[in-house]
Amino acid sequence: MTPIRNITILGGGTSGWMTAAVLSRAFTPDACTIRLIESEEIGIVGVGEATLPQVRDFNTWLGLDEAEFMRATNATFKLGIEFRGWGTSGSYHHPFGVHGQSAGGIPFHQLWLKARTFMDPGSIEDYAFPIRLARENRFDFPVEDPKSIRSAYAYAYHFDAVLYARYLRQWCEARGVQRIEGQVTGVDQNAETGFVERLTLASGESVGGELFIDCSGFRAVIAGQALNLGWEDWTPWLPCDRALAVPCERTDDLTPYTRATAREAGWTWRIPLQHRTGNGYVFSSRFTTEDRAREVLLGALDAPAQAEPRLLRFQAGRRTASWHKNVIALGLASGFLEPLESTSIYLSQIALTFLMRLMPDTRFDPALAREFNRLIDIEYERVRDFLILHYHANSASQGPLWDYVRSMPVPDSLKEKMALFRHRGHVQQYKDGLFSPASWIAVFMGQDVMPQAYDRQADGLSEEALTGYLKDLKRKIDSNLAVLPSHAEFVAAHCYNPNSGISHD
């Protein structure tokens, strides 16, 4: 067995530099040469300004200092996503945490469902500490005591993805990663094996390698253009194929959550950073024009725009194989799912986790590639179903797009999940793949997919005991919230970037 000693990464956006960071953390320069090719003439998409809590595991594994990283990327904290206009309630939150606290092993949402049969318990969100925290624009780190209501959540970040890539680049270069400036004009394969042997740059320089990782974004220079690896189109389920992105000035409302608002032909995002607010409109070109989308986006801003909206074109789907011979496609070169649930960076991160677990030697055992592709397929399909649920179960928005998604056939895997939940509020649990039952419950209930009955295990609590339990839980949440700082105060004390141009005085 001969270990790989020469790895070449193509593309220097978020996924490219995350890949370089993981590899340079795992291998010393003596053990393996890591090169990254990127061109300053090619802009990066810079997706992923909103993240999931898993990104903290990534940064922690690298050993990054949280406050330093947040200052460098103008980051703020994120407790979840607020969805506006997706359900009849007008607004609901998908929190990074759970609703309430279970009692005697009985899931809280089952207790709440039972309470509705004999009283008005209010919204289930009234019992979710991370949602109450978000709605009041407060923040603090979760505590470790599992008995405390303040342990019932996690957090992620909003950050400038371009600055994050730059921050990782500095980190990587200090650990021996070699950056090569240039554009690839040729991909040379072995005539017999089909393995990629070298990349040719516009300058004439040739860059070899034993393992090539394609992080070239939508262009997919190696996986798509050179190897012509197949693409599975998911547009029939996820018809949005355009996005307009524009930053605007920051307002005083430093919310600790992303906002996703349903619009006539898609949805807009709002992501508050320290120095600006990121905005965008994901829409379907089948149901609106780019001019109308631009009008909707600019009309939705809560402060003056700082630039002209930038258009991105995409197609929802994935590569039929992300690992082929000695090439691995990662990030947008591997697949694309719209950022409705902030999954872009996570999908790169989990692919890197699988790569490190299955790192090949120079024999490139095909069994490793098959297992990698199987795991990636599961991840993409789990996220796909969750995104489709948002569209298909939208009970509030009007217009041709929404008529289409509400009536379209959905994957059997999603159909089964919805049927199971409607029966008695049960959620499929799985070992692999993103999104826990708490996430599914938040979206189901937020978008009016309600169970017909509660699970009888909730009868373990009498009506009188349940009434008291709910009352005590609300009181506990209220008393804990009252002593916590605002999100803006917490950012100012923990990770304020004095160069952000924003004063917290």
Automatic annotation (TrEMBL):
The record's active-site residues are 78
Annotated keywords: FAD, Flavoprotein, Nucleotide-binding
Gene3D superfamilies from the entry? FAD/NAD(P)-binding domain
Gene Ontology MF annotations: monooxygenase activity; nucleotide binding
Which residues participate in L-tryptophan binding?
Answer: 341
The residues that the entry says bind FAD are 184, 332, 345
SUPFAM superfamilies referenced in this protein's UniProt entry, alphabetically: FAD/NAD(P)-binding domain
Q: Does the keyword Nucleotide-binding apply?
A: yes
Per UniProt, where does 7-chloro-L-tryptophan bind?
A: 78
- PANTHER family, from UniProt? FAD-BINDING PROTEIN (PTHR43747), FLAVIN-DEPENDENT TRYPTOPHAN HALOGENASE (PTHR43747:SF4)
Please state what the protein is called. Answer: Tryptophan halogenase
Q: Which organism is it from?
A: Asticcacaulis excentricus
